[in-house]
Design brief:
By secondary structure, the protein is of the alpha/beta class. The protein contains 8 helices and 9 strands. The protein has 2 domains: 152 residues, Alpha/beta knot; 66 residues, tRNA(m1g37)methyltransferase, domain 2 (Trp Operon Repressor, Chain A), CATH 1.10.1270. 37% of the residues lie in helices and 16% in strands. Helix 6 crosses helix 8.
């Protein structure tokens, strides 16, 4: 999978994309990440990439010309269709469903907004969609681009080593993950649940699903409202609610 990132600050990406899972995925050529400096496509000796907005107002706006030229240069090298994403607080919120959707493209071009935003003609001429990573304000689109690349890369076959790993992550199936334990079996009087030591795979699977449902109900009930539950999940969720009710009664 190919990622092309258009940014004013290419140095910001050196660390995150050069370590851990993403670094190994790049070495194996499972993903390809190209960083393009928008300043290289400016038209004056000062490498001007932003200007005050027409009509007045605070802040600066990224010019259309450098962005369009950089995007056009990248696309001229790609024979396959490129899907272009503008990282913007005005975009659709990045969630696991959107990550799955974006992972279906072979070529993603990410435009990192900055300052007060980009000239509206960037949106109209080359952007396919806008994506936000949350309802808060950042200094630019670089951090959101890193988040998007990391999330989408996990969906690429071979990146995680175990193809089932991503499917067990929180949000993949609409639930938060169940609790995890490893050695030692006991720490500060806190023991690993016996079921996880039993070797009984069916019981372990049931325990994990039930714990995932409970954690989701307590922490993110909105996810359960969106999820289409199976008969088994409905049954376990009913048990979870009864347990929680019992726990609350004991506390009172």
């Amino acid at each position: 999978m190919n990622f092309d990132i258009l940014t004013l600050f290419p140095e910001m990406f050196e660390g995150p994309f050069s370590t851990s899972i993403l670094s190994r995925a790049r070495e194996k050529k499972l993903i390809n990440i190209n960083i393009t400096n928008i300043r290289d496509y400016t038209e004056d000796k000062h490498n001007t990439t932003d200007e005050p907005p027409y009509g007045g107002g605070a802040g600066m706006v990224l010019k259309v010309n450098p962005i369009y030229k950089a995007w056009n240069d990248i696309n001229a090298k790609n024979r396959e269709k490129v899907h272009t994403v503008l990282l913007s607080p005005q975009g659709k919120t990045l969630n696991q469903e959107k990550v799955k959707e974006l992972s279906s493209y072979n070529n993603l071009t990410l435009i990192c907004g900055h300052y007060e935003g980009v000239d509206e003609r960037v949106r109209k001429s080359i952007v396919d969609e806008e994506v936000s990573i949350g309802d808060y304000v950042l200094t630019g689109g670089e951090l959101p681009a890193m988040v998007l690349v990391d999330a989408v890369s996990r969906m690429v076959d071979g990146v995680l080593g175990d193809e089932d790993s991503s499917k067990k992550d929180s949000f993949y199936e609409g639930l938060l993950e169940h609790p995890h334990y490893t050695r030692p079996r006991e720490f500060e009087n806190m023991k690993v649940p016996e079921v996880l030591l039993s070797g009984h795979h069916a019981r372990i699977k049931r325990w994990r699903l039930k714990k995932a449902l409970k954690r989701t109900l307590i922490r993110r009930p909105d996810l359960l409202e969106k999820k289409k539950l199976s008969k088994r999940e409905k049954k376990l969720l009913k048990e979870v609610k009864q347990e929680i009710k019992g726990e609350n009664n004991e506390q009172n």
